[in-house]
Prior knowledge:
203 residues, DNA-binding, Tetracycline Repressor, domain 2, homodimer, 73% helix, mainly alpha, 2 domains, 9 helices
Amino acid sequence: MTTAATRRTPAEKHEERRRALAASALTTLGELGYARASLREIAKSSEFSHGVVHYYFHDKLDLIVSCVRQYKATCVHRYDGVVDDAASADGLAAAFADALVRTILDEAPMHRLWYDLRAQTMFTAELREAVLAIDATLEEMVWRVVARYADLAGAAPALGPRAAYGLLDGVFQQALLGHLVGRDDALVDLDAEVRRVLPTLLV
Amino acid sequence: MTTAATRRTPAEKHEERRRALAASALTTLGELGYARASLREIAKSSEFSHGVVHYYFHDKLDLIVSCVRQYKATCVHRYDGVVDDAASADGLAAAFADALVRTILDEAPMHRLWYDLRAQTMFTAELREAVLAIDATLEEMVWRVVARYADLAGAAPALGPRAAYGLLDGVFQQALLGHLVGRDDALVDLDAEVRRVLPTLLV
DNA sequence: TCAACGTCTTGACAACTGTCCAGAGGACCG
DNA sequence: CGGTCCTCTGGACAGTTGTCAAGACGTTGA
């Protein structure tokens, strides 16, 4: 019988569980960070016991890499709406700055985890592939914004995708750190800085 | 008797040991990262046993904070020579870009540790004070370069110290990551990007 | 009804962690 | 020489870690 509850094949159900576990692990990782998130702690805040992790994942690193891949899907097209809806260069700049601020407000733990994992990548090679893939995707995401911004302004970008990403990511990271340590003007500054930085990216 | 070997007071000798231990710990931290550097591993690569750490430091965190403070002293005035010796804006840009590249070549482990610890700061409040103090000093260091560059070019900076630091730090961080994962054009790109970014920081 | 299977729990394991401490070793001073 | 202090060692501790395996549970199919 294929009711609404059992309409999935066993393989799909398996994959579904993997996703659920990874999603749960993702929030715990965002709370504790890579260094202090143990498998027992991860399982504790899910609906499963600590042993189940090795049923769905080969390794702790296998779990974390799956988490990273899952994270990627949630944030890769976050600013596409901003790009599509923009009618003017200034409007795009304002909307983009606002979207960045809201990202920190809504998902600060997720993004501090991202910077944590990217730093871990500099030490452990196992994370390399997954993290670098995301980094490249984020670079493309930023470049879509910058290219569209230049287009609307009728000018050409002064920098390449890599530099533009590193640059805006650095400003964002600084604002995230400021926000997390309680500097109350961190987000206001971010908004102003993004609006001032974008024009300098044009020739 | 106050020979050359025992000319220091006991208090000075104590402080000297602390510095030696912190220096040794610093290299181990740069090798393993914050998550995997245990006290035993730190002591193993020093000339002491693992128990001595609690004789000179109250805590593991006390040790790490001391390491961070020590690290600060070594890199805070790294680019002052570049600023002082510069005769033209383009010359300053070239020398600064070259100095950044050499920093990665010479001390990549130290700097990946820095980014690791800054990410940890987003999770654990105990590191906050020491890390934020260094971050502010680095911001000033970058600002000295940018201000001098604007001065030589006869223009005014288009951004404030915070944005300028976040921006250049982001580009540097991207290059460090690229270098550590073996992207062979990472440092060449860094050189080119810094030279192209600096002019855009002027009005 | 019984057997087989996929799923999950529970407890165990060896290794490792930060921390502490009893005491060895040596330098210094009376 | 004897005593006192500082320095440092090595082992022990309680707790935590990732990993694994034996078995319980519930569903399915014959």
